[in-house]
């Protein structure tokens, strides 16, 4: 049969695969549809809830140092009574006293019975280079105030006065008494702030400590303060919120569902309109597999006519013919014109005719069930149905015509 009239081998194999794996593919598509539907439902219809934990504060406390010094000695630069404030450096001779306010305020959405305690002290100490070793320390109280019924946003302040000359003299006196000063002498204003009250229905206490440094120098003293310090007590809250998903899951759910539905539709089409392989088509694919597997044992050669005069035996498959040829130390030849395979041993000719995938099963077309569908001549022509040549005046699908002009 001409190769142009044969169905595509690829199509045959695809049909075979679809019908052989139909159940498995259906299961995969159904599972994909179910998974896609589940993703769509849990993502877009009923995403559910989750518990989130967050840290909150019922109040915020702000504390800062506010400092200034009044000019008390006449000079050509500043008028007496001028207040110098917020400076990093002050002049010891003309403004020796530093006024310090420790200001505190809080903010809260719900607060009651709030008290604010502020306690400050002057600390003079001598420390090592790393600040961890303290050789000596001297403390003096500066301010200790309690404020009651403080409202949210109200500012309270405890005031203190520092005399730079007196601080310098105290430090020098201590060093003279000790007879040595192994480290660096520091002057600090240490303030402790405590806020107590009921906030958001809960009794809460918040405390913090801040420090300001005063560094006496040669005719000046420097002030270094931390600026506005803000903080508050923290507590953990748990809340239930609706789940949210990213774009990948939002898109993948509908995509998987669509693929599953389309796959099921395609399979239904295949089941209805694509027929399973006929026995002839299955035999043809089996032959094509054997032809590919045993290609190295097959040679395309046109045998001479006398060979076909030998008694012939038919092989049921190409594999059987190749196995027989190997066992009998002979070769398998494929007729380049008819596509029929032969093996020659002794006085016998062994033949295998490839199946025709387009032929009807035996008896369906009303013809002779034993007729040679691969191109052999019928009995009226004297043909040998195993492939031997007819008489000299007739053509033969298995061999050339007996023509006096045939070069063979």
Would you give an account of this structure?
There is one protein chain. The protein is of the alpha+beta class and 408 residues long. The protein folds into three domains: 77 residues; 182 residues, Immunoglobulin-like (Sandwich), CATH 2.60.40; 103 residues, no CATH class. Helices cover 25% and strands 35% of the residues. The protein contains six helices and 18 strands. Strand 6 and strand 7 form a beta hairpin. Helix 2 runs antiparallel to helix 4.
Sum up the overall morphology in one term.
elongated
What fold name goes in the CATH topology slot of the largest domain?
A: Immunoglobulin-like
Number of helices: 6
Fraction of helical residues: 25-40%
Strand order of the largest sheet: 4-11-10-9-6-7
Order of helices and strands: HHEEEEEEEEHEEEEEHHEEHEEE
Taking Cα atoms only, what radius of gyration do you get, to the nearest Å? 54 Å
Q: How would a textbook summarize the main sheet?
A: 6 strands, antiparallel
Summarize model confidence as the mean pLDDT.
Answer: 81
For the record, the count of structural domains works out to 3
Distance between the termini: 25 Å
Structural class: alpha+beta
Q: What fraction strand?
A: 35-45%
Number of strands: 18
The CATH architecture of the largest domain is: Sandwich
CATH class of the largest domain: Mainly Beta
Low-confidence stretches: 1-5, 360-408
